[in-house]
Specification:
Elements lengths: L10 E6 L2 E6 L2 E6 L12 H11 L8 H8 L3 H13 L3 E6 L2 E6 L6 H12 L1 H9 L5 E7 H7 L10 E8 L3 H15 L2 E7 L3 H4 L3 H8 L3 E2 L7
Parallel strand pairs: 7-8
Antiparallel strand pairs: 1-2, 2-3, 4-5, 6-7, 6-9
Helix pairs in contact: 1-3, 1-4, 2-3, 5-7
Length: about 230
């Protein structure tokens, strides 16, 4: 967090989990210090997920409120990151009434390369969600395995090599595998699919079941309207 601070101001830093809380006189400033385990070159998980959401869908124009709700990020943090990204020329914004809409600036010289990096690292849920919209018979979907563990903050010794996707329900398999073949190049990794019954998480047994449910899982929103 940047800003002018009087040299006479009293500041007391306190570590709280992955965040540093600075008590500055009567004001409290919370600084997110946690770098994302999936790709720790960004300042924070929030910054990376927000940029991935906007740059990964250049045709969309969400409001700041929508981004905050979708990503479960405080509105103030969304506003701050959008301000920084727009100042860097990565995003553009406009106002309709009181709502501020943002979209990717596809004319930026950084757009294509940065969007590809962010989508491959952090855009997996959004890309898979859009893909699964076209497939009937899916009750729920989750990413598990190494990608989900890194997304949850676990640090690994080896890079994530593929995406483990769990599909619950009775999908049309031809449609499902055809759709997966289409998104794998965009994600830069192969997508390994496991299909189980709709009640498998609650009723399943065995070593594989226990391994999956005991480790981090990332739910994939199913946005199909069929």
């Amino acid at each position: 967090m940047w800003g002018f601070k009087s040299p006479l101001a009293h500041e007391t830093p306190v570590q709280h989990g992955s965040r540093n809380i600075h008590y500055l006189d009567d004001n409290i400033q919370v600084v997110d210090r946690s770098s994302p385990s999936l790709l720790p070159i960004f300042r924070s998980q929030q910054q990376a997920e927000l940029l991935a959401a906007v740059l990964g869908e250049p045709e969309a124009e969400p409001t700041l409120t929508e981004l905050a709700a979708r990503l479960e990020i405080p509105y103030a943090s969304v506003h701050r990151e959008i301000e920084r990204a727009e100042a860097a020329g990565l995003l553009t914004s406009r106002k309709i009434g009181r709502a501020r809409l943002v979209r990717a600036n596809t004319d930026s010289p950084y757009y294509r390369g940065l969007a590809e990096i962010l989508t491959r690292a952090f855009g997996v849920p959004a890309v898979l969600s859009a893909m699964l919209t076209a497939v009937d018979g899916i009750s729920a979907a989750f990413v598990f395995g190494s990608w989900a563990a890194r997304q949850a903050g676990e640090v690994g010794r080896r890079p994530v090599e593929d995406i483990d996707l769990l599909i619950l329900g009775e999908p049309d398999r031809d449609d499902l595998y055809r759709a997966i073949d289409g998104v794998s190049p965009r994600l830069g990794r192969s997508v390994q699919v496991t299909i189980r019954s709709a009640d498998w998480l609650a009723a399943g047994v065995g070593t594989f079941h226990d391994t999956v449910v005991d480790r981090p899982m990332e739910p994939i929103p199913i946005r199909s309207t069929r």
